[in-house]
Amino acid sequence: MRKKYLGLSMVFLVLSLVIFMSGCGSQKTSDSQPTKTEGKAVKIGVLPIEDNLPFYVAEKDEIYAKEGVKVELISFASAMERDAALQAGQIDGQVADLVAVALLKKIGTDVKIASIGLGATPKEGRFAVLSSPKSGISDMAGLKGGSLGISQNSIIDYVSDQMLLDKGLKLEDVTKISIPKMPVRLDMLLSDQINTACLPDPLASLAEAKGAHVLVDDTYKNISQTVFLFRAESIKENPEGIKAVVRAYGTAGQALTNKPDQYRDLFLEKAQIPPDLKESYETPTFSKLQLPAEEDVKSVMKWMVEKNLIPQAYDYQELVDPDLLPES
């Protein structure tokens, strides 16, 4: 009988050891598995503009790998194509503007702002209203009764309105002409087919270099920002991966700001700076990660409601996700 109990004891001992070793093996496997950030790649839609430069710097400096996240940068020729991809769930995030954020939400694509891209200070991401070389318009007063080339119902439309009003003009004093394609708008300005146009840098700087006159730019006041945004569904599915990408963007932006010369060639290539500006156009600087100011968001929402672009203003909390920012 004792031998029988001894045999049973040995069986239980062996089983206990198997369970224990199995538990240890499971723990070891769990520890060696990739973290959540190392799983599915986060897909970012990019355009050939300077706002997206931190994505490429993070790739070049292997910051994504340091953050333990896989990132796939997908290039698009136009914002329309990029936005369509975001709506279809083909990409997780992008850099756009506050007007685009509200329009995306209006059509049913829930997105959240993680941080400002460019525009935390007035010097970042300049827009300018310029007069054509032969127009004879040398100040904002001369714009009254003239034509202004813009892209209708866009951030450029918003910025133009704010600058006109700030400089004492009434919106009805100027005839707006919608010219969505910026290279076409630039050509029409330089060939005096329109009196004035609103353009972002580097096209504003190129127009000035070719004889156009800057009437006003938004470096006197913080009017617009680009913002780094993600699909709400992507955030829900991969919160740690999204946060890692945000951290990488911020780290890369600061590297650019601190050592612009180190990334000069990358900037000229990825932002497609016009050949005439390659020597003179400065590499952009990026502020630290931060959400747009609530008053700036409210101003854009108010304008969009007045333009009948959205039925009612979105609350600030509906548009931002403060949890995506790294802890300070």
* Oligomeric category: single chain
Count of runs of 4 or more consecutive helical residues: 13
Query: Which fold name corresponds to the CATH topology of the largest domain?
Result: D-Maltodextrin-Binding Protein, domain 2
Walk across the major sheet and give the strand order.
2-1-3-10-4
Strand fraction equals 15-25%
Q: What is the name of the CATH class of the largest domain?
A: Alpha Beta
> How many structural domains does the protein architecture include?
2
Largest sheet: 5 strands, mixed
Q: Return Rg in Å.
A: 26 Å
Fold and architecture overview:
This protein is 43% helix and 15% strand. With 328 residues, it is α/β, with parallel strands linked by helices. It is globular. 41% of the residues are buried.
Summary keywords:
five-stranded mixed beta sheet, D-Maltodextrin-Binding Protein, domain 2, alpha/beta, single chain
